[in-house]
Backbone:
């Protein structure tokens, strides 16, 4: 939120604390992302770092911008608003399917993305 104050022909903009934090990146987290198997081959990346706001939406946006929007399509179901059920996505060794509530990321987390696995 901001207010504009006109003082003798000059505009002075007041930014509130919340806006200043977001402008300065105070709420940003940095996570390591590891891709495995077919994802590693398809996107040519084994490991990368992402910076974003700590939310799932922020993660997906940063992932799409840094690697490929197609990777986001490969792992996220837009209809259900969840990671696709046939994948394994782990945050610090914990499957995101086991995390109750809203998925939040912390600075220094490691996210591992595994493609569907078939066997017999």
Residues:
């Amino acid at each position: 939120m901001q207010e504009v104050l006109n003082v003798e022909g000059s505009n002075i903009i007041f930014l509130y604390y919340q806006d200043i934090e977001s402008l300065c990146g105070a709420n940003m987290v940095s996570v390591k992302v590891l891709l495995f198997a077919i994802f590693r081959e398809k996107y040519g990346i084994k490991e990368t770092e992402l910076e974003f706001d700590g939310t799932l939406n922020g993660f997906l946006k940063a992932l799409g911008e840094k690697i490929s929007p197609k990777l986001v399509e490969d792992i996220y179901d837009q209809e259900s608003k969840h990671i696709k059920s046939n994948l394994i996505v782990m945050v610090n060794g914990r499957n995101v399917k086991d995390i109750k509530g809203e998925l939040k990321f912390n600075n220094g987390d490691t996210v591992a993305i595994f493609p569907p696995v078939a066997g017999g």
Remarks:
- The chain is about 30% helix and 35% strand.
- The mean pLDDT is 84.
